Inverse folding.
């Protein structure tokens, strides 16, 4: 198996604060880390079970790739990539190459953070996939250096973080996406009704994808499903209409996606009663 965890979802934003305040207010997400760089500035917010949402703000450099990405989306916030943790980055890169995918932006220089990306044109996923070997958390790596430590720029509201259970996206070629997720990224597949499929890892959130006709504009990551703290679920135990549940969530322009509340215990019961 390559990846063992869907670690975090990264979202491109013009500014951390509107999205961060919303995630803190609506989901109880807590500031974990943040720092500024010329090309881009990342911060991470922690949810239950240490699942993360990362916010990527353009840096001061004129050639900021996050700035270009936002311009491509008419200046609006939009999901940028999903990060998968791997035990062996060299094996993960080799696995991608064996599947006919040449990883991009490979950086193996830092022993505590080694990464490679899979471009959506090569995977059919509709989003950039990052493979990372990182034995330590971002805050452990940066916490001892003031240069890499930025305080939370908004006043945080106290509250128990919710669970990010599932990320939902739409793809044009589900079979190609399935090959990449299972063979390259080590997912376990679970059934989803209609033209869809679900994917799970040992840790982190699940991923549910639905196939749409070629040429559809609304491909890529569209929603996240969240549950109350302490909810118990069987991985992949979702009802047949999970796509409708996720699509009916509240849209949040600050994030460029919908947030859909999930009643996890009820989902598990529904899935068992229908034989899903």
């Amino acid at each position: 198996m390559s990846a063992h965890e869907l670690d975090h979802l990264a979202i491109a934003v013009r500014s951390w604060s509107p999205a961060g305040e919303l995630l803190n207010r609506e989901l109880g997400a807590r500031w974990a880390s943040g720092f500024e760089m010329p090309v881009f500035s990342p911060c991470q917010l922690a949810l239950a079970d240490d699942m993360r949402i990362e916010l990527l703000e353009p840096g001061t450099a004129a050639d900021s790739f996050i700035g270009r990405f936002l311009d491509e989306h008419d200046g609006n916030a939009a999901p940028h990539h999903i990060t998968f943790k791997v035990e062996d980055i060299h094996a993960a890169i080799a696995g991608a190459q064996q599947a006919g995918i040449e990883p991009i932006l490979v950086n193996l220089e830092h022993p505590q953070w080694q990464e490679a990306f899979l471009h959506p044109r090569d995977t059919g996923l509709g989003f950039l996939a990052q493979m990372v070997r990182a034995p330590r958390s971002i805050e452990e790596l940066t916490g001892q250096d003031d240069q890499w430590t930025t305080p939370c720029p908004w006043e945080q509201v106290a509250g128990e973080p919710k669970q990010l259970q599932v990320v939902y996206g739409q793809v044009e070629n589900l079979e190609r996406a399935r090959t990449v997720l299972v063979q390259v990224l080590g997912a376990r597949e679970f059934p989803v009704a209609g033209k869809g499929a679900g994917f799970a890892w040992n840790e982190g959130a699940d991923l549910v994808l639905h196939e749409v006709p070629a040429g559809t504009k609304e491909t890529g990551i569209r929603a996240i499903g969240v549950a109350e703290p302490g909810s118990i679920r069987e991985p992949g135990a979702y009802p047949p209409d999970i796509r409708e549940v996720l699509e009916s969530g509240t849209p949040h322009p600050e994030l460029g996606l919908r947030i859909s509340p999930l009643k996890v215990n009820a989902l598990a019961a529904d899935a068992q009663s229908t034989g899903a």
Summary: Helices lie at 16-27, 65-72, 89-98, 120-123, 138-142, 174-184, 242-247, 264-274. The first strand starts at residue 3 and ends at 12. Residues 163-274 form a domain with the Immunoglobulin-like fold (CATH 2.60.40).
